[in-house]
Amino acid sequence: MILPNYSEAKKRTKNVTLREEYNLDDSMKTIGVGKTYFIKTYGCQMNEHDTENLKAMLEEMSFSEADDYKNSDLIILNTCSIRENAHNKAFGMLGRLKHLKEERPDIIVGLCGCMAQEEGVVNRLLEKYKWVNFVFGTHNIHRLPYILDESLKSKHLEIEVYSKEGNIVEGIPVKREHSYKAYVNIMYGCDKFCTYCIVPFTRGKQRSRDKDDIIKEVIELKNNGCMEVTLLGQNVNAYGKDLEIEYGMEDLLRDVALTGIPRVRFMTSHPWDFTDSMIEVISKYDNIMPSIHLPVQSGSSRILKLMGRRYTKEDYLKLFNTIKDKIRNVSISTDIIVGFPGETEEDFQDTLDLVEKCRYDNAFTFIFSKREGTAACRLEDNVDITEKEERLYRLNEMVNKYFLENNKKLIGEVVPVLVEGMASGRKAGLYGYTDTNKLINFDGDESLVGQIVNVKVEEAKTWSLDGKYIG
Ligand code: SAH
Ligand code: SF4
Ligand code: F3S
To answer: Which residue ranges have their beta carbon within 6 Å of ligand 2?
Structure first.
């Protein structure tokens, strides 16, 4: 049993990250014959992509995917720790699985992802959820076949969670959710330690993937007809800072654009590392999409300092305006936290003021959630929850107003859309995303799915557009 340890997880070493190749022992390849699996994924794109790897590993072991957890032999929860409600959802699901296991004692239940890296969670599992079969962390997803095999043999809770990141493992198989768009990891972990955030604990130190591995993956995707890649990392702008060669995000963006893949996106950008040369590269290549997620978190410089974000409201606005000036037609989205410990009405007004200035195209807004082990967890918090809820409500009213306003500006324009599928709830409707990452619904034939087409915007709503297929 290898248990998570927060004080280890917090340490950062200068060790160079090594690379190893994934390899599945032949003896593992028949373990799942005749059995089904189901993976429930919580959290961010990073987790969604990890799930694509987990699925492919299970299928190499001969498991096949079930369409519902209720009729599956193996159920894995790939969890998220970012806020309390992510925890609650996973524990709620564990409650349902407990009942299912009472009816069908043979089912195997595993838990992985960010919650597995938390000492408190694993202790709770050991005390109250002994019936879970196995737990593994974010640093050893490549070990799934071996951990699963162990737990099948031992018949009691197997825990293998490393607190320190190991090598970068290349060659893990992947079962992609879509053929026309794909996530590509460019880096793992985060060294920013924003005071509210659990990610540097659950995902370890920042490690950049080798550029050649990334480019090779993008070229392969392109050759298989993929239209769009999203380069993934907790803070992609810091890409390369831990490498021994002089090669940063601007170089990577250029080289990925030069592969000729039709669309390149990336997320998430921390304002701190956003350089002018990156902006230049984004504006130069047409296949780098004019859509940037630029989390601000707060408009109050005082709160930003307490959050450890290392920029002021003014620094952020300067960067925001440079991006708007230099990248034609760019859309910018953000993340905002309200109710950080000690946030006053005046601080909150600074956030509203910033939103008024930035008029975001999209924004994800959250109430601060205390995460065990983080620096902000120890700050005194004297703002009560109804006040925080009210601030969230006021903030949402304002951001929604600007979403609609921005969308309305597009009425009458013809926009390029990557068609993703048939819209649910509409009989003959397709949906897709514009270059600026806006959801658009329009009528058209299913054969257009996976293509980039022109659509004329006819109607604007807060969270989507309606349009007409042009060709
Ligand atoms: N790496 C990304 C953020 C990943 S987490 C970045 O730095 O931009 C996604 C968002 O969740 C964050 O931007 C933040 O707004 C929110 N978040 C993170 N920790 C939180 C917490 N403890 N409480 C509330 N929201 C949080
Ligand atoms: Fe969390 Fe900050 Fe790292 Fe983003 S940059 S993952 S918010 S610590
Ligand atoms: Fe959640 Fe982990 Fe992503 S905490 S947001 S799944 S990195």
So the answer is: 190, 192-194, 197, 199-200, 234-235, 270
Domain spanning 6-160: which CATH class is it, in words? alpha beta
Amino acid 166: pLDDT: 87
Give me the residue spans of the domains in the chain.
6-160, 176-289, 323-408, 414-469
pLDDT per residue over 2-19, tens digit each?
999 988 998 988 888 889
pLDDT at position 169 is 96
pLDDT at residue number 425: 63
Specify the ligand 3 atom closest to the Cα of 79: 6
Its CATH architecture, for the domain 323-408, is 2-Layer Sandwich (3.30)
**Paired residues of 469 in beta bridges:** 455
Give the pLDDT confidence score for residue 315 in this predicted structure.
98
pLDDT of residue 427: 59
Enumerate residues 6+ apart whose C-beta is below 8 A from 141. 50, 53, 54, 57, 112, 172
For residue 303, give the H/E element and its range: helix 301-307
Atom number, ligand 2, closest to the C-alpha of residue 268: 4
Which residue, by CA, sits nearest to atom 5 of ligand 2? Answer: 192
Question: Which atom from ligand 1 is nearest to the alpha carbon of 336?
Answer: 15
CA distances from 375 to 270, 341, 353 (A): 19, 11, 27
d(CA 271, CA 99): 46
DSSP state string for 245-296: SS--HHHHHHHHHHTT-SEEEEE---GGG--HHHHHHHHH-TTB-SEEE---
**Residue having the nearest C-alpha atom to atom 1 of ligand 3:** 80
Whether this model's pTM surpasses 0.90: yes
Question: Does the C-beta of 116 come closer than 6 Å to ligand 3?
Answer: no
User: H or E element: which one contains 399?
Assistant: helix 385-408
> Measuring from each residue's beta carbon to the nearest atom of ligand 1, which residues come in under 6 Å?
82-83, 196-197, 199, 234-235, 268, 270, 295, 297, 335, 337, 366, 368-369, 371
Question: Which residues of the chain register pLDDT less than 50?
Answer: none
Q: pLDDT tens across 76-85, in order?
A: 999 999 999 9
Tell me, yes or no, if the two domains 6-160 and 176-289 fold the same way.
no
One-letter amino acid of 335 = D
Close Cβ partners of 99 (under 8 Å, ≥ 6 residues apart): none
DSSP 180: S
Residue 450, token pair as written in the block: 């996976």
Helices (H), 142-192: 144-154
